[in-house]
Design brief:
The complex is a heterodimer of chains A (170) and B (119). Chain A has 170 residues and is mainly alpha-helical. Chain A is 79% helix and 0% strand. The longest helix of chain A is centred in the middle third of the chain and has 37 residues, at 42-78. Chain B has 7 helices and no strands. Chain B is elongated, with a radius of gyration of 17 Å. Classes of the chains: A mainly alpha (170), B mainly alpha (119).
Chain lengths: 170, 119
């Protein structure tokens, strides 16, 4: 029951931060969706708003930590020029090369949308506060960007999990 | 009722969203340019060019430069749009178009099919 240092970082990057991101997204989305005057009393709004602010900022922070650990700690091990690195093994096998040429190429770039978009969403939630409930157009746009942020992270997360299954970092 | 009538102007919020769109489009642009131009790809290897030597490669520059573009754009738009309210729709449309452009230009099937300018 031991993990190497590299395996530990892949777990932190993919599972620990990934799970926190998922939880923060679920809470944030529910909070944003229900942030409507017809659904909430003034008291309810006051009670819910701090949770929404914390949730959106946690999601943004976790997204930054995920892409930074992924890019600057885990990714160099993946793309090591050694013939035994995951990237080298995938490229050398035509049957598995697409995991790199499509999966990793997409994952490594698309993941970076998540922190940028999540931060913008968190800022708007913090800036407007309760007033966001009355800003219908902006609230819908913020929800859409929040979902896009999650979707990009989901693409990165899913490909990360599959690639680490096909060619694990050990 | 407009944002201004209700209280807080929408300028700062629109600035945050628009700059996120600009940062997203920059990420897409850098990704595609690095794919089609070897010189640009070498320029993006900040990890090597700045002597970090971690092994991240061109992804280091593509992402850090995109983040820099986003932050500079946010600073500029936040300054220009501070304490003002605007019709939100054009700014929101621009935001989503820019995010869409960024997503398209980071999609491998698209950027790998672009003509190579410099090998």
């Amino acid at each position: 029951m031991e993990l190497t240092q590299r395996e530990t970082w892949t777990v932190i990057h993919g599972m620990v931060l990934g799970a926190a991101f998922l939880l923060a997204f679920a809470g944030g989305l529910a909070g944003l969706y229900s942030l409507r005057p017809e659904l909430l009393t003034v008291t309810g709004l006051r009670e819910r708003l701090p949770r929404l602010e914390i949730g959106t900022w946690v999601m943004a922070l976790v997204a930054w930590l995920t892409v930074m650990t992924g890019t600057w700690i885990v990714y160099p091990w993946y793309r090591d020029p050694a013939p035994t690195s995951p990237r080298s093994l995938l490229i050398a096998d035509p049957a598995r090369a697409e995991w790199h040429t499509f999966g990793m190429e997409w994952k490594e770039h698309v993941a970076w949308f998540a922190p940028i978009l999540a931060t913008a969403v968190a800022f708007v939630v913090l800036y407007y506060g309760a007033q966001l409930a009355k800003e219908h157009g902006l609230r819908k746009a913020v929800i859409a960007l929040f979902v896009i942020a999650f979707a990009t992270a989901a693409v990165a997360g899913i490909f990360g999990a599959f690639i680490n299954k096909v060619a694990p970092i050990t | 009722m407009s944002s201004a009538e209700r209280g807080k102007p929408n300028g700062p919020a629109l600035a945050a969203l628009l700059s996120a769109g600009i940062g997203s489009a920059a990420l897409g642009l850098f990704t595609s340019l690095a794919q089609i131009h070897a010189g640009f790809k070498a320029l993006m290897d900040l990890d090597k060019n700045l002597g970090f030597g971690v092994g991240v490669g061109p992804l280091s520059g593509k992402t850090l430069y995109a983040v820099a573009v986003w932050l500079v754009a946010w600073a500029i738009t936040a300054y220009v749009m501070r304490a003002k309210s605007y019709a939100a729709r054009p700014y929101l449309t621009a935001t989503f178009v820019l995010v869409g452009v960024g997503l398209l230009l980071t999609f491998p099937l698209l950027f790998e099919s672009l003509p190579v300018i410099q090998k």
